[in-house]
Amino acid sequence: MSTTIYLYLFIVCLLMLGGIVLSKVTSRYGVPTLLTFLCIGLLFGNGGEYDFHYDYPEITLYISQIALVIIIFTGGINTDFKSVRPIIFQGLLLSTIGVVITAVVVGLFVHWVLGYSLLIALLLGIVISSTDAAAVFSILNSRKIKLNPKIRPLIEFESGTNDPITYFLTVAFTLMIVQGESYSWFYFVAKLLQNMMLGAMTGVAGGLLMVWLLKILNLKIGLRPILVITKCILVYSAAELIGGNGFLAVYITGMILGNLKLNTSYIANFFEGIAWMMEILLFLALGLQVFLQELPDYWLNGVLVALVLMFFARPLSVLICLLPTKVPWRDSLYISWVGLRGATPLIFALYPITMGLPEGKVILNIAFFVVICSIIVQGFSVEWVAKKLQLVDNNIKSKKEKAIKHKPDTPSIEVVNT
Length: 418
Known about the structure:
Blueprint: H1 4-26, H2 33-44, H3 57-77, H4 81-84, H5 88-95, H6 97-112, H7 118-127, H8 133-142, H9 152-179, H10 185-217, H11 224-241, H12 246-259, H13 265-289, H14 299-322, H15 329-337, H16 343-354, H17 360-388, H18 396-406
Helix pairs in contact: 1-2, 2-13, 3-11, 3-12, 3-13, 3-16, 5-9, 6-7, 6-14, 7-9, 8-9, 8-17, 9-10, 9-12, 9-16, 10-11, 10-12, 11-12, 11-13, 14-15, 14-17, 16-17
């Protein structure tokens, strides 16, 4: 057998190991862990110091899709429906209308100021309009920021639910550009409604079926996470096969599994580790896919787009969406600031490339600078901004400890094999 596959496995695992060790050091200085892995992939990738040639956008997209499925599913499991229920309306506004407003504002800037065609500019705005739940909470958790409990559920829900609409818009606009006049706007709206409805229905059915299987099969502890991860990917693929939104389906499935009366703490712990591994693999692969020698031509446009996104488009979209809901202005301001961009813009930027759009690499390179600027500028300042806006709750830990101390013992409904 050729030694090439062993060499690739050795290099990938070596990069992952090096990133894990290095992240322990860089995190002490406030450097986000995900940025460390992205830079390692960039350093060793195309045009990097060691020039490890990697130009497989389709393979990278497939890897990214599976990784994002696991990450979104994990976010669904960790979403507490009781805490999310009061803010569902606000969250849905941010994850739908907010995404559209952000994309349009950024797109118009790119079209009018940077001179790109309108559809390409709007496509770029769509690609970078989605916040990244993993990036947000990896930074919040690493800094041990105790946010006001009214804010965190809204940030969490928005980050977990804005990927499906961004995914659909990215694919639809790419098809619109590629096919030109043959693409109907009526078809676009009908496809959007079909995509969301079928995705939601598949997610509900998949979640209920998953809970039912866990109850009746009575599997050993080691097999239960395997059943869940298999069913998770099955739900995603089934939704995509019938024309639904697979990302929305797996998020709903995860939320059902995490909120029904079933002891799933061991599953949540399992998926937390798997989600971290997917994040690491995802950022390494995306870093490898970017061509380092092409970046100098796009740094100025990328930084300008990032500044418009962080300081104008994102705050404007949050203000418009939350103004009718009477959310305090401090909360709205902070929610607009912690809308970090992580792996998802880079994943969505791969779709135009794989679908044959000539401007695909331009979108990827500009999205890369947007992600870097967002992680550095917003990532380093989330704690400082929270303190300045007086949104840090220093009593959260003591409240949890008090609740645990006085919590009566309740028998678990889970049946464990003996």
